[in-house]
């Protein structure tokens, strides 16, 4: 009897020790995973932000809201494309709502600010939403910030060559004055200038601008084309005012300028976007099974009648891609977020992510290496504008194929080829 009691006691002690050592994911089997979701639902990118939310939600819906037996609980927050507002919203999600994982933000300056904040929260994993400034993952990197979308410079690969093929030897650039357009300009000019193109004028305008008359008045007569890197309502305002002023220069677009949230605004100038070429991380008319499946699922869940677009916007693609990464990583570790999420981050770092536009892997800075396109705005039989594919480049790294010592992050003044 005494022997039996001793055996039972040892068994109970052993079970207690095993339970104490058990990973949290098993001890809390079925506990929800709280994911903070931040997008710009106010300000010039509000329409794009709403579509970004749709993209993130679609990735969750495709898993029926459950990963590794754990329910995915989404807690949303909004910003207005201002870095301080984005950080305050993120801080609330992390410090008050106690989310396990953050997905967001949308805009370039926001991304840099949230990356910096992520360093103060080492036990939370931050995954980008749609922001594309180069500096987010190239300067003062954060070990717990991941970006599975390529950046604004990567998106413009091939556009310089395409511009010169159209005879655009001299280009004026009109762009919003913050980190993401600097990256887009750098991506364009690095190629364009090397091949002999000239940029005599850059006009930097404030985010959320209303009046572009002074910029339009500065357009030189001897430029062959304009490269417009404005998004959301800024792009719409410029296009309407340019048309009213009788502008007739051929247009090239930044990636955000030809996204579906801009192509679906109503106005006369809208049709004159037909023929506009751009660099982009996605393409409406991409003819691959993965892209077609993504588009069909988006259209099924978010038909035009309920507020969706005829095709998912750039922001829907970005948020879908990053949310899918967050969920695929969670599945890879069977829902285990224990140990400061170390296993989860290792899984994210090593992941080859299957996306609608091709495979994505991360570099040492946790930045996507992936595919970009040169696209052209076209009109379909129903009058909808969409982007057809002119060319595709795979495996673009953040240095755009340059040596590290030759690469310079885009700024207001760099690059330059007057």
Write a structural description.
About 40% of the residues lie in helices and about 20% in strands. The chain is α/β, with parallel strands linked by helices and about 425 residues long. Strand 2 (about 65) and strand 3 (about 70-80) form a beta hairpin. The protein is globular and about 65 Å long. The chain starts with a helix and ends in a 22-residue tail after the last strand.
Classify the helix fraction into a percent range: 25-40%
Task: Give the full name of the CATH homologous superfamily of the largest domain.
Answer: Response regulator
Tally of individual helices:
16
**What is the approximate shape?**
globular
State the separation between the terminal residues, measured CA to CA: 95 Å
Précis, in short:
The chain has 418 residues and is an alpha/beta fold.
Task: Describe the protein's topology.
Elements: H1 2-21, H2 24-27, E1 33-40, H3 46-61, E2 66-67, E3 70-79, H4 83-96, E4 101-103, H5 108-118, E5 125-127, H6 135-138, E6 145-146, H7 152-155, H8 159-165, E7 170-176, H9 179-194, E8 198-205, H10 213-217, E9 225-229, H11 232-244, E10 251-253, H12 260-263, H13 268-271, E11 277-280, H14 289-301, H15 314-332, H16 338-350, E12 353-355, E13 358-362, E14 368-379, E15 385-396
Parallel strand pairs: 1-3, 1-4, 4-5, 5-6, 7-8, 7-9, 9-10, 10-11
Antiparallel strand pairs: 2-3, 11-14, 12-13, 13-14, 14-15
Helix pairs in contact: 3-15, 4-5, 8-9, 15-16
